Amino acid sequence: MPIALPATRAAETGASAKVADFLLAWWNGDDAGHFPILHLCNLDAVIAEDMLIIMAYLAENATVYADQWGYRDTMAEIWKRYRDI
């Protein structure tokens, strides 16, 4: 979340939009767009591995969204920054 939503726009990195794509696709892919798998190749390995951990968790568990982990407001902020243009 901190990578996708740093404190200021100036603090965003090249990874910020890619991480936002991943989180928003998980949260609501139909409305927020999808996550291109090739984004994984264009991220630091640690960030890509974190995404894969989330994907593996989702594959093994019932549907879980960021809202259920207390991140609804943060996801709404990410939506506003990257999709509500």
Would you give an account of this structure?
Helix content is 54%, strand content 0%. The protein has helices at residues 14-32, 45-60, 72-82. α1 crosses α3 (72-82). The two termini are 19 Å apart. The mean pLDDT is 91.
Quick overview:
This protein is mainly α and 85 residues long. Helices cover 54% and strands 0% of the residues.
Number of helices: 3
Rg (C-alpha, Å): 12 Å
Q: Percentage of helical residues?
A: 40-55%
Which structural category do the helix and sheet elements fall into?
A: mainly alpha
Biggest β-sheet strands, sense, barrel: none
Our estimate of the beta-strand percent is under 5%
DSSP, total strands: 0
The H/E string reads HHH
| Low-confidence blocks of residues | none
The general outline is globular
Termini separation comes to 19 Å
Return the average pLDDT rounded to an integer: 91
Keywords:
85 residues, mainly alpha, 54% helix
Describe how the helices and strands are arranged.
Blueprint: H1 14-32, H2 45-60, H3 72-82
Helix pairs in contact: 1-3
